[in-house]
Amino acid sequence: MVRKQGIAAQARDGVHGANGVLLMMIFKLCARTAWEQAQQDGVYTGAPIDWADGFIHFSSRDQVQDTATKHFAFQDDLLLLAVESEALGDNLVWEVSRGGALFPHLYRHLALSEVAWAKPLMMRADGTHDFAGLL
User: Fold this and answer.
1) How far is C-alpha 37 from the chain's CA centre?
2) Which residues of the chain have a pLDDT value below 50?
3) What is residue 93's three-state secondary structure?
4) For residue 129, how far is the Cα from the chain centroid?
5) Closest by alpha carbon to 25, among 7, 37, 5, 42?
6) Cβ-Cβ contacts under 8 Å for 90 (sequence gap 6 or more)
7) Cα distance between residue 115 and residue 44, in whole Å
8) Helix or strand or coil: residue 29?
9) In sequence order, which residues have a C-beta less than 8 Å from that of residue 16 and are 6 or more positions away?
10) Could you tell me which CATH number the domain at 3-9+19-130 has?
11) Whole-number pLDDT of residue 98
């Protein structure tokens, strides 16, 4: 696996702050029950696939809809979590994944305070998800 250290490795759709660090929102698709558990625990530890891989999977704005189609089709009762990438520091690593694209992976638990917002992601009749007004 090829690793790209630091947030600046994926500058395509972000804005750079004064210190040169990439400022961008990244997204996590999350089952409502997992988010409710995180609120009880005070921290989000990820989904079973995250535990198996050793990091929490995120997607950029350009990637999240394809991620939903590929991995979450026909899954109802999902939330879309938005996180400012800069807040995650060096534990956020952009790594080559699907189709050679760089995806954000978080190598620690996610503090609830780092989540900018969590909003319901509605499922359409065809099993895809409606991102209107979310991205």
Assistant:
1) 18
2) 1-21
3) strand
4) 16
5) 7
6) 5, 6
7) 10
8) strand
9) 8, 22, 23
10) 3.20.170.20
11) 81
